[in-house]
Specification:
The protein is mainly β.
Length: about 200
Amino acid sequence: METIKIDARLRTRYTKGDIKQARRRGRVPGAVFGRGIEPFLVEVSTKSIVEVLRSEGALNTLVELSVPGSPNKTVIIAELDRDPITHGFLHVGFHNIAVGEKVHTQLPIRLIGTPLVVSRKEGMVDQTLETLDVRAESGNLPTHIDVDISNLNVGDKISVSDLPHALNIEFISHEDATIVSILPVQHAEEAAPAAEPAAAA
């Protein structure tokens, strides 16, 4: 899984004035927490948060957080508060991932291929699950889950139970949940033939 490096500055406190000043400088106040560490305050650049959100894994992306005076920490963005009007970043929460700790997250599902019945306009794709709940160690997390639909016909479906189950990734989503199905295309009935003209009297 992709890893992005972010340089953080330590903070000892956050008053309202401190927070406003940080945001004016293009910085986002935040905190680091998780198993095996004492929580502490940081600030990071707005640009670095945007870089994470634009990456393929988005909020699932692993972050190598560089903190002055301590070893780098592997984290993920667990909380991201945004202003409802300006959509600016208000606060970021980084969850520290301890060695051997399994991460519970959601991975986007990417459909691969185009069924022949869809190309012929005889069927259409109905994707009912956009993400999968999974649990795995951070080093084993992919950026997404590929689902091949190229050989599906009308009436076929793929459920969570149909996916390849890797030993290092645990699916939390229900095994019977349908990910995608192929529905028939309803064609309009041909217009009924015009009635014959009435016989002449």
